[in-house]
Amino acid sequence: MKTTKLSFYLFVTVVCFILITSICSYEHPEFSEYELVGSMLIKELEHGHIFLNNDLLTVVYRNRGDDAYLSRMRVYDISNPLQPKLIRIGNLVPEIDWAMHVVYSKTQAFFYKKHWQDIEYLDLETSEITEINTEYSVSALTILDSLLYLNTSSGLVILDITDPVNPIELYNENDTVSYYGGYSVIAVADTVLFELTNYLHRFRWWNIKTPQAPSLISEGHPYIDAPSYSIITNNYLLIAASEYVFDPCLYRCKRDYADTLTIEETQVLDYGIDGLAVSNTSVYLMNRYHSELTVLQLDDFSQQLHIRPIALGNPSYISFGVCDHRIFVLCRGYGILVYERSTP
What we know:
This protein has one helix spanning 2-27; strands at residues 34-41, 45-53, 56-63, 69-77, 85-97, 101-105, 108-112, 119-123, 129-132, 138-144, 147-152, 155-160, 168-172, 184-189, 192-197, 202-207, 215-220, 227-232, 236-241, 249-254, 263-268, 275-279, 282-287, 292-297, 300-307, 317-323, 326-331, 335-341. It is mainly beta and 344 residues long.
């Protein structure tokens, strides 16, 4: 009888353990380590940007000893990321200043300097570069489909770039308030847009369903200094603050369009943020000075891991892209590294 009772209690305990473990792993799946699975050598690489489009990887870069401009371009077939194939090498004419911010979508890349008026457009298929002249200084921009959204000295501006050589201005807020001198971010998803201007210490949510006549949903004043990156996901708003901040942070806020940002979780970082991306349920951060990539669980920042190419001596990450849990990293003095999450 005692043996039967003991067996029963053991059975119940085991079942409960399995249920609890499965529930926890479902809500917060454990990260498995990333491993280096491939590389593309560019020995003299000094600076550049990576662009991913389906099975193509494009890198725009300059080598050590080049002038301070991005003048080179390579295109790889990464349909088999373990054996990437170099399919094209070219030059950029005119060249692009390396110290510029960049956003891209598929075959289009846009380079800009904060608080400058001109935007450089690069066609990643033809390597052609076109200068887009504006009458306002640009603080931040983002792209969705064929529309370019800009935070500028004139307020919110929306451009139709179906033909990037001849962009069409769909909307210009023509705000008389000076925006110059502040750090700004802008993010777009579906039919909503978020912008935060640190100089005015103000954020705004917009309904952009009709880009010719966007309507303001709400606005407020956040307690976030020097924002540098922002992304809207299905349920959240992510804001990274890093430039000239004593404690750089990553904030996860509710996507509730309220006049107050509801911060659900904050991750304090011991380094600045030089890149932010989201893929599925993972958040990716890059710091080029520490040569480190950090991967966090979107709904639980406590789950994270760090990737450092220790074997390369003293490398420096420059740019990165994410596709299917593979991370493609541009690394100074080496080339392109491919990391893949290992099988548990």
